[in-house]
Amino acid sequence: MALTKVQTGLIEATGTPSATTFFRGDGSWNGTITSGTAVASTSGTSIDFTGIPTGVKRITVMFAGVSTSGTSLVEVRLGTSSGFVATGYLGASGNIDAAAVGSTTSSTGMRTDNIGNAGLARNGIFTCVLLTGNTWAATSIMANSTTALLGFAGSSIALAGTLDRVRITTVGGTDTFDAGSINIMYEG
Asked: What single DSSP character describes residue 45?
């Protein structure tokens, strides 16, 4: 399908998009969406995606049936060529279920939710966008597939360098993944 004209507010775009391009706010078609390879989250204490190229402005982490062996919360840590960053995050996560509402703050990573029960399966999207310079902001929403439980989070961090890697782990990094799969997409 060819797009001949789109008007959003005062911005107009013309052109023919393809499956790997997206509409930019300046009215042009540019950039690509790159999908990683899905990783089974059935073992280990962390899942890393490395080699993210310079110029990426949005990273999406997708969770399907992801659970862990313990009660530590799942979080995403960003990294640079110097390694993964485990301090300096600003944010909080919460949850809503049939019986209660809960929340907690975070400084060791960008939380995906406030679901801290072993074996509960997370399904949802974590989105992290470049705010300015090397400052990133993120939101996340997860749902449990076995009980009526919804988790959500918001966070930010100013990195000391250019982001080039993402790690999915748990607070403390000792709980192991025991079910599901995780993948990422990134856009320039």
From this structure: S
Tell me, yes or no, whether 132 and 154 share the same domain: yes
Query: Within this chain, do residues 14 and 64 fall inside the same structural domain, yes or no?
Result: no
140 vs 109: CA distance, rounded Å: 13
The structure's pTM equals: 0.83
Bridge-partner residues for 102, per DSSP?
95
pLDDT of res. 25: 55
Report the C-alpha gap between 48 and 76 in whole angstroms: 10
Q: How far is CA 171 from the centre of its chain?
A: 16
H-only helix segments in the chain: none
Q: Which of 135, 137, 141 is nearest to 153 (CA)?
A: 141
Integer Cα distance of 154 and 152 in angstroms? 7
Instruction: Tell me the residue range of the domain where 13 lies.
Output: 1-31
What's the whole-number mean pLDDT along residues 157-178? 96
